[in-house]
Amino acid sequence: MKQGYHHGNLRQALVEAALALIAEKGPQGFTLSEAAKAVDVTPAAVYRHFAGRDQLIAEVARQGYVIFAALMEFAYDGGKPTALAAFEATGRAYLAFARKYPGHYMAMFESGLNVNAWPDLALVAQKARDVLERAAAQLAQNLDPPRRPPASMVSAHIWAMSHGVVELFMRGQPGAKSPFTPEDLLEAGIGIYLRGLGLLPPDR
Length: 204
Description:
Layout: H1 9-25, H2 32-38, H3 43-47, H4 53-76, H5 83-100, H6 102-109, H7 119-140, H8 151-169, H9 182-197
């Protein structure tokens, strides 16, 4: 057995092992015993930190959402330099996160976990959603209230569009290539969507 694990860092070593296994096999393609083997400890040692695989995946997802929320906040930057630029930046941050943190991304969005079953995970996931919702609200504030769409609806649509671009055009699946970059696809989609809502003037 490997030595040198101080109190607390076996837990993080297991998270890192899970990230590698998720990247290799998917979030449901490995066992807790495999995570234990990857860090050269017994399964009993794992159970002192995680009650089961789902709890380990939930912790991977929670850490992913912490990173994700920070990236979204940085991209939004209080709505600077303009509401539109900040809104588009949050979409690009979604793509950047999926590209740089694929293991976290899969744990967050492809593991089948019920986020609300894990209070710490639900809290940080909501923090990430709140950034996009604030960006949507700022973008729509100049519309007359009767014509103003709910910010939660706009943010949900952009989230769905971003997720679709990642799943279809960033994951390297055969036949899923596009002549456009994911960033260009998302920017064009956001533009079409916002013009449809009346949040951008039509192209001339």
